[in-house]
Design goal:
The structure is a homodimer. The first copy, chain A, is an alpha/beta fold. In chain A, about 40% of the residues lie in helices and about 20% in strands. Chain A contains eleven helices and 14 strands. In chain A, strand 2 and strand 3 form a beta hairpin. Chains A, B: InterPro entries: DenD, Epimerase_deHydtase, NAD(P)-bd_dom_sf.
Chain lengths: ~325, ~325
């Protein structure tokens, strides 16, 4: 099978590609070729499988058409302007996250109208499609009321994915990713950054800032679990989904206090002592509007598997990033 | 205040305009000018209030800009390709119902960026944003899972309305209209047509076809109630809406049997005898996917008022259409 990964240079994209190349198959089907696309040309890992790398901005006319010209059997659409940037740059967010996604679906539809092409298309959505107020645990039938332009664009992507699937132009699965922890790399300015930072930095002896109360609770998945979700979405039977093509992924609901205790179990009091409490009302207010926990019953019934607990999330980070 | 009505030539649009011209005010504010727009030039009723009539296809670039150039204080966006046509013509439905709506919001935003213009914008959505399976009574927090391209486009319009409102570019209220009954005029090919037809035709001595079982239950509002919803949406304080700008309108849940009994009370057995049962499996299957009843608590709390019962719906038709 031929696979196209759009957004292949991102953190999850790189891990997904690495895993596919290691397995050389997805769902038991041999991978024969891969195309890796991103706004900057992704680097191609060494592999026996032929890999094309492409610099592609989905918001430009014709780009999506050229990406599907080779008729990939499986498309992962991970590309997005992230939450903070989509909020700061209204036009750019809509251009990439809404128009880009629609151009992609439309390019698939045009190919479908020519020769019946109907790829599996895995679309990464986000729990940012939800906005407060919500119940303590958000069920699978709760409405989408995003409080950011990013969340709005993802919710619209879900609606388009469902309609294009219902009409038979593509075979879509949308997955609403939890907040990814522990996100590897440098600290960034995302409001959610501290959730990873308070574990990642102390594990390598560096101080980390905690801007919110220990009681703050949120919904997490490790990068390894996220890659597992993507690959499972690529291979499940979509008949049971009916017209409801997007699924809240299972995750780990953990408070900051529980994160800290998991860090203590993994690296001791010396690591925990590197967390510096520095309350930030702006971040606290943003985070207060985020979901805390979900009942992801549909996804669980369909075989999507979350990390066991926050200890596992910490140990995955240690194994995958720190050797 | 200056008012723009887009979709002014449609059944609801015409009734809305007639009511505004009769009242000469909306929410206690004097109406000083009206612009009536539709794909075909709407006719302007005789009135002391200056009326502009415009042929405008929102899906064409620049059209929305010219409509908001006069900075209307209040915009009613009623224009849409209806359900059946949006399903039959995928491109046309998306062009008018999605692109047209987005062009309008974007034209308002561009005006806002120039001079702070922030009109009240009333957007007509539809219960078609909901798709089976659902509970017997659909609450205000139930997710939107449309089963038509029309419903998808309306749901996307709701998301855009919320985001543009949240960002302060416009002051939006979306109202999800029930199925309108009794729809005046000739029978049409809409799958929902019989709900009106089995009352409208017998009232004037004409036979009407009933393609579904008497037990089928659906959600209705009279044209007069729909106009009331639009005017109330134009005047309510939007602060209590928060970021959740679209509301399911209250309605009357009635079975076909209840409709028939209301007809009998209004016009006797002779009228009822004109209903010819002619089961149609295609229509029965389509209607089975439609909502039956809602708990429209938010809208009721905000003062939106439904018809009392189906008897009232019948008597409104008699009063407004048959004199």
């Amino acid at each position: 099978m031929k696979i196209l990964v759009i957004g292949a240079a991102g953190m999850i994209g790189r891990k997904l590609v690495k895993r596919i190349l290691a397995d050389e198959a997805v769902g038991g089907r041999q991978v024969t070729a891969m195309t890796l696309a991103d706004v900057v040309t992704p680097s191609a890992p060494a592999s026996a499988i032929p890999i094309d790398t492409v610099a592609a901005d989905l918001s430009h006319a014709g780009v999506a058409e050229s990406l599907v010209a080779g008729r990939p059997d499986l498309i992962f659409h991970l590309a997005a302007i992230v939450s903070g940037e989509a909020e700061a740059d209204f036009d750019k967010g809509y251009a990439i996250n809404l128009d880009g996604t629609r151009y992609l679906f439309e390019a698939v539809r045009q190919a479908h109208l020519v020769d019946g092409y109907t790829p599996r298309l895995v679309f990464t959505s986000s729990i940012a499609v939800f906005g407060a107020p919500f119940p303590a645990e958000i069920g699978d039938e709760f409405h989408l009321t995003p409080l950011t332009s990013y969340g709005t664009q993802k919710a619209i992507g879900e609606l388009l994915l469902a309609d294009y699937s219902r009409r038979g132009f593509l075979d879509g699965v949308g997955i609403r990713l939890p907040t990814i922890a522990i996100r590897p790399g440098k600290p960034n300015k995302a409001a959610s950054g501290f959730f990873s930072g308070i574990v990642r930095e102390p594990l390598v002896g560096v101080e980390a800032m905690l801007p919110v109360a220990d009681t703050v609770r949120h919904w997490f998945a490790s990068p390894r679990a996220a890659v597992g979700f993507l690959l499972h979405a690529a291979t499940i039977d979509t008949a049971p989904l009916g017209a409801r093509r997007s699924l809240t992924m299972p995750g780990v609901a953990a408070t900051v206090a529980e994160e800290i205790e998991a860090l203590r179990r993994a690296a001791g009091d010396r690591a925990v002592a590197l967390i510096r409490r520095e309350p930030d009302e702006t971040i606290a207010r943003i985070v207060a509007g985020w979901p805390q926990a979900f009942a992801a019953d549909r996804a669980v019934a369909l075989g999507f598997t979350a990390d066991k607990d926050f200890d596992e999330i910490v140990s995955i980070h240690i194994a995958d990033e720190l050797g």
